[in-house]
Amino acid sequence: MKRLRARKLKFWSQDYLIYKYLWRDLGIVIKQGKDFLYDESKKIKTLDVGCGNKPYRGLFDDCEYIGMDYSDIGAEPDIIGSAMEIPFDDESYDMVFSTQVIEHLTEPQQMVHECFRVLKPKGVLILTGPFIGLCMKYLMIFIDFQSMVLKIY
Question: Is residue 6 part of a domain?
Answer without folding.
Answer: no
